[in-house]
Write a structure and sequence with these properties.
The complex is a heterodimer of chains A (149) and B (128). Chain A is α+β, with helices and mostly antiparallel strands and 149 residues long. Chain A has one domain: 2-Layer Sandwich (Heat Shock Protein 90), CATH 3.30.565. Chain A is 32% helix and 29% strand. Chain A contains four helices and five strands; from the N terminus they run βααββααββ. In chain A, helix 1 packs antiparallel against helix 2 and helix 2 runs antiparallel to helix 4. Chain A is globular. Chain A starts with 6 loop residues before the first strand and ends in a 6-residue tail after the last strand. In chain A, 42% of the residues are buried. Chain B is α/β, with parallel strands linked by helices. Chain B has a single domain, classed as Transcription Regulator spoIIAA (2-Layer Sandwich), CATH 3.30.750. Chain B contains five helices and five strands, in the order E-E-H-E-H-E-H-E-H-H. Chain B has a five-stranded mixed beta sheet. In chain B, helix 1 packs parallel to helix 2. The chains are: A alpha+beta (149), B alpha/beta (128). The interface between A and B is medium-sized, with 26 and 22 residues.
């Protein structure tokens, strides 16, 4: 367990990139984060961001294939939530372009191209690392305002 | 995700319920598009009052239906977005594509004068 963040608790879940696991990923993170007694809107923000990141792995990372998606969630000191979602899929050619609002490589599937925009605005920080052919890792953090009851 | 379609003349309501994500959006899209293709409503209301979760897949659903209606001059309405669903819609700038309305859309469909601002107001008051 990485200690530099003063991690208090951690989960790691790996699942195949099947679309029915989008709701599972939300539930897993939601259940884990609930021990901090977050506000309803904060929990909704985190679930939405997780849903976007996992959907990206499924729709883009492993387009036309099925591979492993890894989700790590941590509770860090100061009620901060750390989330890392990674795939070993095709990678992103141009991260700056991909992060532009309304950019999508799958318009025919009614993808809005707003995944990164939503992750960015619903979490405190977002970082994306990607290499062509070896995968993409999205890291997000959010500090909760609610204290333990 | 479940979609109930209610139609009256040129007005159509798609009442969405459950979680709207990439996985569930495909089925919802198919149900709505079949109904729209069959009736070409002049007004389509997407009602989110019973949606418990929505990510940008819901925005994609709205954008796609906007394009579909725009092709033949129909108008899209987004109804009863609350909490995080409203936040996702706002961040995505959906107010530029569709009008946001609140209230009992089913009643609006079957009321005699379903159009006009006065009626919008009336429906809102009735619900309160």
């Amino acid at each position: 367990m990485k200690r530099s963040d003063r991690t208090l608790n951690e989960i790691k879940v790996t699942f195949p990139s099947l679309s029915q696991n989008e709701s599972f990923a939300r539930l897993a993170v939601s259940g884990f984060v609930s021990q901090l007694n977050p506000r309803v809107d904060e929990l909704a923000d985190i679930k939405t961001a997780v849903s976007e990141a996992v959907t990206n792995c499924i729709v883009h990372g492993y387009r036309d294939t099925v591979g492993k998606v890894t989700l790590v969630a941590r509770i860090c000191e100061g009620d901060e939530i750390y989330i890392r979602i990674s795939d070993k899929g095709c990678g992103i050619e141009d991260i700056d372009a991909a992060m532009q609002p309304l950019f999508t490589s799958a318009p025919e599937e009614d993808r809005a191209g707003l995944g990164f925009t939503i992750m960015e605005s619903f979490m405190d920080s977002l970082s994306v690392r990607s290499r062509r052919g070896s995968g993409t890792t999205v890291t997000m953090r959010k500090r909760l305002t609610a204290r333990k009851a | 995700m479940n979609v109930e379609i209610v139609s009256n003349g040129g007005l159509m309501l798609a009442l969405l319920s459950g979680e709207l994500d990439h996985h569930s959006a495909a089925g919802a899209r198919m149900t709505i598009d079949c109904a729209v293709d069959a009736k070409c409503p002049c007004e389509l209301y997407l009602d989110f009052s019973k949606v418990t979760f929505m990510d940008s897949s819901g925005v994609g659903l709205v954008m796609g239906r906007y394009r579909l209606l725009h092709e033949y001059g129909g108008t899209l309405y987004i109804a009863n977005c609350r909490g995080s669903i409203r936040k996702v819609m706002q961040v995505s700038g959906m107010s530029k594509l569709a009008r946001f309305v609140d209230g009992d859309i089913r009643a609006r469909l079957f009321s005699q004068q379903a159009k006009g601002e006065e009626n919008d107001e009336k429906i809102r008051q009735d619900v309160k």
